[in-house]
Design a protein that fits this description.
Elements: H1 10-17, H2 22-33, H3 40-60, H4 63-72, H5 74-77, H6 82-97, H7 103-120, H8 123-139, H9 143-160, H10 163-179, H11 183-198, H12 204-220, H13 224-240, H14 246-259, H15 264-271, H16 282-295, H17 299-308, H18 310-313, H19 317-339, E1 344-346, H20 347-354, H21 358-370, E2 376-379, E3 384-387, H22 396-421
Antiparallel strand pairs: 1-3, 2-3
Helix pairs in contact: 1-2, 2-3, 3-6, 4-6, 7-8, 8-9, 8-10, 9-10, 10-11, 10-12, 11-12, 12-13, 13-14, 14-16, 15-16, 16-17, 20-21
Amino acid sequence: MSSSHLPATSDSLFRAADAKAPSEAIAILYQVLEDPSSSSEALRIKEQAITNLSDLLRQEGRAAELQNLLAKLRPFFSLIPKAKTAKIVRCIVDAVGKIPGTSDLQISLCREIVQWTRAEKRTFLRQRIEARLAALLMENKEYPEALNLLSGLIKEVRRLDDKLLLVEIDLLESKLHFSLRNLPKAKAALTAARTAANAIYVPPAQQGTIDLQSGILHAEEKDYKTAYSYFFEAFEAFNALDDSQAIYSLKYMLLCKIMVNQADDVAGIISSPKVGLQYQGPELDAMKAIADAYSKRSLSLFETALKNFKTQLDEDPIVHRHLSSLYDTLLEQNLCRLIEPFSRVEISHIADLIELPVHHVEKKLSQMILDKKFAGTLDQGAGCLIIFSDPSTDAIYPATLETISNMGKVVDSLYVRSAKIA
């Protein structure tokens, strides 16, 4: 901050607003914060100056300066109520979070704030920052540390009975366990979040997040119809708020349609004026390409879609997991249809028909034989697949077993009766 200062008045704020360059406005606001006056009016003006300054620094992408600003404001925090302090701290943390590529800086900033709040005994602010820190650690894939932080935080918040924060933490725990592939614990945490949410008013954005997580967990259990209804609820909530998560809810809705063999409905949803038209872009184009490939049962179109929309499909872990299952199913169906007329066929011929590499087809056929999807064997020396005819079922064997079983029951019954007579 500059050594000189400007009076903390409305005129100084207007002067900053009228500045020609952002750097000039930032310098003026720093000078306003240097004003030693601690009157109620001066404190109010400084609070507004901090808000304006954090917005300007965010727009300029000066994340490190926002971190330094928070450290320099600590003497000021002792002059204002704790509630206002919490609001300013969270505002600055949110401003840093809106600057791209600042994940590590955000984690460092949150840890710094947690240490300060512990020293100042500001429990409520610390709990909220720790929840934010756990979310950042999860995004950074530092799962063990995030889980340890959440486990202690949940016990503490339950004792204080802060329902709104408890909903947020339980929801975060559900996401964390899902990332660790622990589905039972993810469902238990989500149930706890819903239970806490039923006791209070939950903001629409938070309710949308709960519905989105519910849809993800139901989709993981292959219950795509229920998942679709949850994704639709989440989409309506986010769409009303113009939240960026609306597009992901819509994307997962389309995924559910494809997974329940209703790929033809995807084009209608995307072209709907109330749903799809305002969200046109690569996310929806990717799902439309997958739906077209699935409708035509074309693996080559499927793989083309995966290559053309790698970011939207492969890099989205939820979509990628379900599309992998869908691709395997489609591949197995196509292979079974192609080998059905043959008793012996070259693997290279099947690969040509299905338009896939030979080694890929050979690997999948061996897996299908081991999984008993069909009876056959691979003659790798000759490069052929030999398909066995279905063995005719011998009806005598099961009938014999049933007869012996019935005779055993009769003998046991006779033994019990003879024992009673004796």
